[in-house]
Amino acid sequence: MDKEIEIKFKQKKINHVFHYTKRYDWLQKILKTGFAPSYCYERISDSEFFIPMISFCNIPLKDVDNYMRYGKYGIGMSMEWAVRNNISPVIYIHDQTPFREFYHMFSNFNKFNINPDFKNMTVQVVQFLKNWKTKHKGNDIITYHEREWRYIPVLEDDKKIIQNTDPEFNDYMEKDKMKKPHFPKKILKIEQISDLRYITVTKDKQRHEILELLYDRFTTEKVTNAIAEGKLLILTADQLHNDF
Predict the structure, then answer these.
(1) Contact status, residue 208 vs residue 80, Cβ threshold 8 Å
(2) pTM > 0.85: yes or no
(3) pLDDT tens-digit profile of 175-186?
(4) Is residue 12 within 8 Å of 128, Cβ to Cβ?
């Protein structure tokens, strides 16, 4: 008698999204008050623009070290937190992607009488477009490997996209002129210790300082329990590079 064979497909679950930052004081501020969105530069083909966002990577812990060009300090948030806060993966495109013309469609909306709902939908799509590869310091970078997710704040009076034809575009190109965060009132909060999965620092001394900060925010008992249960890890950049 033939036996029925059950085939199980195993998928590796990456239950976190990781955000990088370049400065220790920025890391501390995020842990205290939350993530503040800013306009970030994007380029699709020959089109340049700024999108309001906070960017995350959905990558295995062993790969976190590979993307520290974005900053050696990082925060890994739970996937439950990401979904709860409407954070979503980007749409990676290349020159032959059928819907890559969404951006050019958006650029020409002002020339025609377009239904506002359709225009808003198109803007939302453009906000999640990303080239599958780019250049970084002269090197080809496959951005598709980063599995980027984005938080796009709901804006009322500010532009949802700043195009290179807009007068303020050059102001945002000058980083010192329009300092981040651009939307300090649109904070994406860290409300409970279970939202946090990983924190990366560069020195052992900073690990102790971060612990004290977390004790003040969430209580010593909750932080200690999270670490003891393996639900929260505080690691140095060297540990990520050498031990994973």
Answers:
(1) no
(2) yes
(3) 888 999 999 999
(4) no
